[in-house]
Amino acid sequence: MPSNMLAGRVAAVTGGASGLGLSTARCLASHGASVFLLDLDADQAREAAQTVGSAVEHHGIRCDVTQEEDRRTALEQVVHIAGRLDILVNNAGIQYHASAEAIEPDRWRQLMAVNLDAVMFLSQSAARYMIPQKSGSIINIASLNALFGMPGRVAYTTSKTALLGLTRNLAVDWGKYGIRVNAVCPGYHQTPMLEEYVRRGVLDPERIRRRIPFGRIGLPSDVGDAVVFFASDLSSYVTGQHLVVDGGYSVFGAPSEASA
Ligand code: NAD
């Protein structure tokens, strides 16, 4: 339900042009935040920004989160336009499905660069603005793979597990500055990433549904709503935590049939 809970707050969402990032941007905007979408393609980010839909103005900015220069200039633009930065959602992420015996070093490093290194160093850039403000909320989008392994996902699982460690330690380091750092662990949600894995036969949506107590694949907005909680004062005494948003998948005890 829309509110003004985030009115006056400025948010940047990486990987904001599609999937969970775009949906999260819409959720933040529906609670009054001014939202900037950071993504690889400027046109796609700007087009997506038009659909975020709120009274305040929204912006799409080109940013490859693996590039230091892009990270720095993207946040500079946000602060130049909006005057501050209150919320950073580190959502951009990639998957690499390969058996552990066949992992290629370059693909491993590329995945770590997006899913882990970029989160550290974009958070560091954001903290330069948040520390003088004595406030800020950083939300990292992890995965169920931060909690357990799955066949063929060793790179992804390693990156998302480390992301929870990063979340906890940044919370410890930056609590004194009033910066909160939390994570959301999505389960299976209807996004282009999931569709791509279904198309390639890596995931079977029917098997996944049978394994989810709620009996449905998650909506992207299920994740956005959890991000809103961490972004808002509703969680003002919560830091270093992760919230699993998976319809009960991870607490279902029967043997998994979900993964190919
Ligand atoms: P998606 O592929 O639909 O969207 C990812 C976005 O990130 C794209 O817009 C892409 O352009 C952008 N991106 C990729 N590399 C980038 C880079 N170097 N710099 C800037 N942007 C970049 O993916 P999604 O399903 O929306 O996933 C979003 C996040 O949620 C990821 O971190 C993913 O690991 C996590 N996640 C998704 C699911 C799911 O069910 N979809 C489940 C668990 C976790």
Main features:
260 residues; alpha/beta; Rossmann fold; 7-stranded parallel β-sheet; 8 helices; 14% strand; binds nicotinamide-adenine-dinucleotide
What does this structure look like?
The protein has 260 residues and is an alpha/beta fold. It has a single domain, classed as Rossmann fold (3-Layer(aba) Sandwich). Helices cover 43% and strands 14% of the residues. Strands 3-2-1-4-5-6-7 form a 7-stranded parallel sheet, with helices on both faces. β2, α2 and β3 form a beta-alpha-beta unit. The longest helix has 29 residues. The radius of gyration is 17 Å and the shape is globular. The model has no long low-confidence stretch (mean pLDDT 94). Bound molecules: nicotinamide-adenine-dinucleotide (NAD). Nicotinamide-adenine-dinucleotide (NAD) binds next to α1 and α6.
The chain-level mean pLDDT equals 94
The CATH class turns out to be: Alpha Beta
Percentage of residues in strands: 5-15%
Count of the domains: 1
Show unreliable segments: none
Distance between the termini: 37 Å
Q: Helices and strands: which structural class? A: alpha/beta
Number of strands: 7
Largest sheet: 7 strands, parallel
